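FORM 7B - TANDEM STRUCTURE REPORT

SECTION 1: FIRST PROTEIN
SEQUENCE AND TOKENS:
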Amino acid sequence: MKCLRLLTLLPLCALLSACLTGQQDPPFTLTLAHMNDTHSQFDPVNAELKGPLFGKQGETDTLYTRLGGYPRLLTMTKAYQAEALAKNQPLLLLHGGDAWQGSGYFKLNEGMANAELLSQFGFDAMALGNHEFDLDNQKLARFIQGVNFPVLAANLDSRDDPDLSQASNLKPFVVYAFDGNQKSPVTDLAHLPADKQLVAVIGLVLEDMANISPNVGKLRFAKEVASAQATVDLLQARGINRIVALTHIGNARDLALAAKVNGLDAIVGGHSHSLLGDFSNVGWGKTGEYAALVTNPDGVGLTCVVQAGSYAQAIGLARVSFDAQGRVIACKGQNQLLASRNFFADPARQQRLDKTRSQQAGKFIDAQPNLVTVDEDPRLRGIIDSHYKPALEQAYGPVIGTLPAPLQNARRPGDNGSDSHGSDVAPLVAEGQYFWANTPQVQALTGGPVDFALLAVGGVRADLPAGELRQGEASLSLLPFKNPLSVLTLSGTEVRALLTETITATLPASAHAGKFPYGGHLRYTFKETEAGKAGHLTRLQWQTAEGQWQDLVNGRRYRVVTNAYSANGNDGWQALARAQRQSAESQSAERVDLAWVAGQLTAFPVLAVAKHGEQLGAVYGPDKALDCKAANVDCGTDAASFVDYVRYARPLVTALDEETVTLLRAGQADAP
């Protein structure tokens, strides 16, 4: 079944509306096991857990361990599947999208390593995530056809695309017929199996996908709400009343979807990396409610909304109960972090806990409902170690620095137990951009020094563990997108507008926080005045080359370095596109993008920012256009700037001495 256009669904729903009346099903409980945004994290990631770990109530201890990874996820998945089989319970295993990107494994193997490993899980469906579009549609089609489960997107029209139009495994929805734990896909909606419990899973991709990725080809993306309602109406007209939406649109939009669409019983989400539930018991805070029940527009129906974090650290399990009319009457469950059984006393994870403390730590973990120790699946670990890890180790290359302690990349201040200053990694990346842009070689191309750097945290894809830092980790894992750096001129007013817009957009707990801004040689304080909705900057300063902090002057123009994706105004940074449009109109545009051509660092003057299809992009001169896909072009100046910064200026990699970002939530006292 090819992806259907929205317009083809609507008349069919009208023709079949008579099927809606009088249909009842026996009470039914469906178990949903789910993960999302696993981002090629085949190996476990370093993590810190905080609490009264060693038996002394009132004291907070820190435990260093590792979480997740594909083999550990598979072990937990198998446990859920075995339990459902033993109890004869219906179960769906779902992936909320963005299996791609995130580690060197993806950069070296593109989508096919994920295809092999994910096919070991027994997924019933996967949503199409935005990072699945990071290569090209031919490679995406190869991945979709290479997995043994359907990939879903009901609001995607692929008919004009030469690659995805041929991908038979890409579908708008799937329907499963359950007899207890046994399930089978329904291939003919005109002949539904009798005496079976029917459940449909529909997929939704970001409706503004064309604004996010330059690689969508001739695909067309329909509105999420209208597509969801049309697909629900179609399924209900056929007599299928239990419907799960598998989405990759972010938790905020999931909650809005539930409030705007009738007939969705559950939404299993992704994209915003929301580890829903209260994890303050291990020092990770609370992002939002797991299994929140949202009332539909008809005032009767309820939709259960879940999401399971990111980077293969956790898995969610929800049980959705239906009455005889197919309406949701209850939804319960939680996310669980999956921990290694190896506990360490030091952030470098060199010193194991002694037996007594290890037992105390294990006892603490056993007492937590949202944290469990899990062994890795040995077969999957063997595939990774034999097929993929040797090439990754070789690609990482030489050591460029050392971290005495791990550095966390919490996207937004307060996430994952972070303080009001947020990421320790993003400010270092921004400082690296500032350092590199001010080297003599770069200044010779750009016309002089820059005043500060701006960075959207979504481009920074990893924490930095304690120990050695190798060159390839920067380009393969930390900054994998090969974004060229841009030097442009902005007024103080334009910088202020950018920060205010991007911070305000990420204030809701459910918001996708990738647009949250950090700076190098720039610091700010933002005070929230209305929880989750509004606030303002109370401090905005830049640091001179002599080390003095000065207030940004609205009317003064500053030279700024950022990456070209942000400079073009993508992913919520539209303020930069507006600024360049105004500069072009006043004939004061000053921007160059930087990349290597045949090994030679080259400047590409940008004349304007304009829409290329649905995405904002740079307009270059006719004789000097930057083509990052050309064989002799390397656009990875973003990662190179960090490598050079560490190698030549900060080989002992620690957090900056002074915090540059402060987000004061409503009701929180002002910083001194």
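SECTION 2: SECOND PROTEIN
SEQUENCE AND TOKENS:
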Amino acid sequence: MQILLTGATGFLGQAIAAALKEHGHEVRAIVRHESRQLAALGIEQRHGQVTAFEDVCAAAEGCEAIVHAAGCSDALASIEQLHDANVRSTECMLGACELVGVPRLLLTSCANVVIGQGDLENADERQPYPAQWSSAYPHTKALAEQRVLAANSASLATCVLRPHLLWGAGESRLLPGLLDLARRGKLRLFGEPDRKIDPCHIDNAAHAHALALARLEPGAAIAGKAYFISQGEPMTIEAFLNALLRAGGFPPEQRRMNSIAARALATAARPASDGTPPMLTAYLLDLFSHASWFNLTAAKRDLGYAPKLSTAEGMSRLFTALTRVRMQTRAP
């Protein structure tokens, strides 16, 4: 199948590109700048913007599916920037499908679209959107997936995947910030120690996209539906963060701060001098202060989903990757 992939230079996008190639698909990426990594994977690259309708239509010509994995979750982005990146780009994909005649659209969303201010335990796809989102990011992702699901028809099969809290080698937001705080002795745990989360390894999220595409046809069981994707191994927030620390070569952290102090820090957080987003934001604080794990029955039944990689295996691979980076950094 000829597939147009957006967001192919990102953390998840590159993993999806590799998974699609592994499943025998021809992949075309719409990119702003050419990528050596994509070239090495044998990905055709078309220059363009995902918010430019003409660019998307030109790139989609001859494709049998679009996988829209591009988006913005930047803590420093304005509401307008988030809306453009997450909603307007999705509208461009839908318009291109109609104009060019692409019969399949798979949208990468996130489980955060249903996360509000409380705990979610064993939640399934019947979980409604919250009355209020913690930030504009999940709100704009929810708007995007609503448009995609509403567009499902006899001529366009649509589906939404909601991977939860992606992690793995190459993740560039949570992990570097966590390890930097540990290196400087500034890291503290917060939230209730018994709350559980189920973050999704990057390879499992990419695998789910390949599985969904194999089943996405007009009238198929998955058409017009959204699915949660994760490890299926809920663990306490403390256990997850300490597993990341061990993978990075640091001892587990036991020191804690109370929720009031954590909220004050998150509210006062500002970007670093180089523009790097702060490690602790109100959005991340909410994610790591409440339980959030999901029932995967629907994904297993309809997508044939089963994690390729266990959490222990993923952490082992992450340890190997980070050890290699440390050795290269220390080499003369």
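SECTION 3: OBSERVATIONS ON SECOND PROTEIN
The CA atoms of residues 248 and 322 lie 6 Å apart.
Residues 79-101 form the longest helix (23 residues).

SECTION 4: SIGNATURE
Preparer initials: ____
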